[in-house]
Specification:
The chain is α/β, with parallel strands linked by helices and about 400 residues long. The chain is about 40% helix and about 15% strand. The protein has an eight-stranded mixed β-sheet, with helices on both faces. A six-stranded mixed β-sheet has the order 9-10-14-11-12-13. It starts with 6 loop residues before the first helix and ends with a helix.
Length: about 400
């Protein structure tokens, strides 16, 4: 169940003041990548850094890292049990995400991190992470239309909710490739708070061989890093850390993987968690540019969360003549309210969007969908996309084979 608000998480943490400073990141797309860049660069620069992102990828505790390493399961469960007992004893009735947020923040205390890089779960103003009170810098990434039932039906309403993480006197970084309406909405909120807007630093990255969205995310990350280091390590030059950006990996984002021995295919498969119209547009441009060699069709394995804008997502990536296997992801640990779109319904929706070459639906087990797509692709381009939860299931299957 999703129930936004700050009162419950405030009650969970009222007796444990946060002992670390934070970088707080809100937006629709790019939060995870920017979090990864910042955590890596801060750690490389000698700052003891924790990171909290959502959702988790494979295991529930892998959304929390300390010094670039996933927190130990034993420590996670120990502190989670303490938080759950506190919730029960005080009769707070916190949601799953609020319990997870409190657990992450308590782990940061326990591990004596200096900085926590924290990604908003949903929205911003009423998100549980907005309990943060010692923020070095706030970041607003690319904003699109998503979670309308909770955040508003227009891009302006959604931008206002996401801008709710901004705080008086705390500098902020805003992705300046956002739409004019988003920029104006955020700027108006910044002016109300008398905060400072720092533009992205695109010129420093023009020479790097990056996808456009990666460039934007790196610009925001380095801008935020400069602001954070000016308060933490004034003597350190943020740009001296730029070479280490090449070492950052972010699973499930334009990730090439080989699924042997799960399937017979030896050629790499592109795995991407694009799950809204904006991220799907980025993926679609990448696939069109890099994988559709001489008009070759692409084979897809896709799934989607129930309630998603299917036309907005799949209309941007699937082209006439493509082959599509529609699948369903399994139960999401800690988020029982997340359900997949039925595979047959998804196939019908995609066929209505595009005149695709062939579609096959696979309800339940994911492996047959992967095997069918492998056979259909015949070594040609194959992409898995549509849901981060689908990405998680694929990586979990692959791990089980090792």
């Amino acid at each position: 169940m999703i129930e936004l608000g700050l009162s419950r998480v405030a009650s969970l943490l009222q007796q444990t003041p946060l002992s670390w400073k934070s970088i707080h990141i809100a937006g629709t797309n790019g939060k995870g990548s920017i979090s990864a860049y910042l955590s890596h660069l801060l750690s490389t620069g000698g700052v003891r850094c924790g990171r909290f992102t959502s959702p988790h990828l494979i295991d529930r505790w892998d959304c929390i890292t300390i010094g670039e390493k996933v927190v130990q399961e034993s420590l996670f469960r120990q502190i989670e049990d303490q938080v759950k007992l506190r919730d029960q004893t005080l009769g707070i009735g916190a949601s799953e995400f609020e319990l997870l947020t409190a657990t992450a923040f308590e782990i940061f205390n326990h591990e004596q991190v200096e900085v926590g890089v924290v990604e908003v779960g949903m929205g911003g103003r009423l998100d549980a992470t907005n309990i943060l009170n010692n923020v070095l810098v706030s970041v607003i990434t690319k904003i699109g239309v998503d979670h309308q039932a909770f955040l508003g039906s227009t891009i302006g309403e959604i931008a206002r909710e996401k801008a709710g993480i901004l705080k008086p006197g705390v500098p902020c970084v805003v992705d300046n490739t956002n739409s004019q309406e988003v920029v104006e909405t955020v700027r108006a909120h910044i002016q109300e708070l008398a905060s400072e807007k720092i533009p992205a630093l695109a010129p420093y990255f023009q020479k790097l061989d990056l996808e456009p969205h990666q460039q934007e995310n790196m610009c925001c990350a380095v801008s935020a890093l400069r602001l954070a280091l000016s308060q933490l390590r004034p003597e350190m030059d943020a740009f001296s850390l730029l070479p280490y950006l090449a070492d950052v990996t972010w699973p499930g984002r334009l990730q090439n993987i080989v699924l042997q021995p799960l399937i017979a295919r030896a050629e790499p498969i592109l795995l991407d968690g694009a799950h809204n119209a904006q991220s799907a547009e980025v993926l679609g441009k990448y696939v069109d540019r890099k994988m559709r060699i001489q008009g070759q069709p692409v084979t897809w394995v896709v799934a989607a969360s129930s309630g998603k804008d299917l036309a907005g997502v799949f209309g941007s990536i699937i082209r006439p003549g493509d082959r599509v296997a529609t699948a369903e992801f399994g139960p999401v640990d800690g988020m029982p309210w997340v359900q997949p779109t039925n595979a047959k319904e998804l196939a019908s929706s995609i066929q209505a969007i595009q005149n695709i070459g062939q579609a096959q639906s696979f309800e339940g087990d994911l492996l047959p969908a992967l095997q069918w797509a492998s056979e259909q692709s015949q070594g040609g381009p194959l992409v898995i996309a549509g849901s981060l939860y689908l990405v998680s299931d694929v990586l979990r299957l692959l791990r089980a084979q090792k």
